[in-house]
């Protein structure tokens, strides 16, 4: 009897010839997964947050999710890369898993993790001043407060910043899978769309407890499942099944995370989630602050439009940086006139 795989068809034993490319992939994958194990947030700390009642006295999952959404808005405002956002969330979750913090300190912790990620991932010329970052995010702490908190974060994380993030695994896996596909099949898995989906997953606390490599392959499996084109998705599923074997991931674990991904993205696609309060995505700054900010901060980063699919409408990832920034600047021009 053939065993049904997580990809929806019978898993068969496939004889493969080890090629130099496959050997290189295996070496790189082992290096990444070895690093991954050393950079994981402490599950005990995350479970403690998960079990905390939302009474305003202790750190909760809701507060963490709100902070991540604010960091996503900051990422869009400055036009920073997906790497910066993904690394910032990795740093935040790692720190929250080892330190009990009060809700009043969360904004400082989040902004410091974001600033560390910016300095690690962005060109030096694009790194904003700490004082400007505080002003734009409308926080009340000082640069000195940020410096002290940044030192605490770095010490608690043993000065280990460059963690292998879910985004890094996603790009690595996507590239590996694409190499095994023909020209038509390569069109199925859009990396831009996958990265947008990953950002939505980062905003959900449940994925903090899941290994980045598992989340990355679950996203690929979910997207392959959503494309109703058996002629090409069968080839993708075969490539993903081989990748699953490389990672030594059980079918049950992959199926569970794939379902969590689907639930998260379905919730994000609802009207309530796709149309949040615009004031939370737009900073109101004074004319004085606007004049003091670097000119480079006013660049508009045009993120690629996420292709539509049969499941998700164009409202799936609602605020592209371009539309958000245009609204922002129209309002600022009115204030300055």
Automatic annotation (TrEMBL):
Domain Cyclin-like per the UniProt entry, residue ranges: 69-155
Keyword Plastid recorded: no
SUPFAM superfamilies: Cyclin-like
Signal sequence region: none
InterPro entries assigned: Cyclin (IPR039361), Cyclin-like_dom (IPR013763), Cyclin-like_sf (IPR036915), Cyclin_N (IPR006671)
Keywords: Cyclin
Family: Belongs to the cyclin family.
Functional summary from the UniProt entry: Essential for the control of the cell cycle at the G2/M (mitosis) transition.
UniProt-listed PANTHER family: CYCLINS (PTHR10177)
Protein name: Cyclin G1
Provenance organism: Mastacembelus armatus (zig-zag eel)
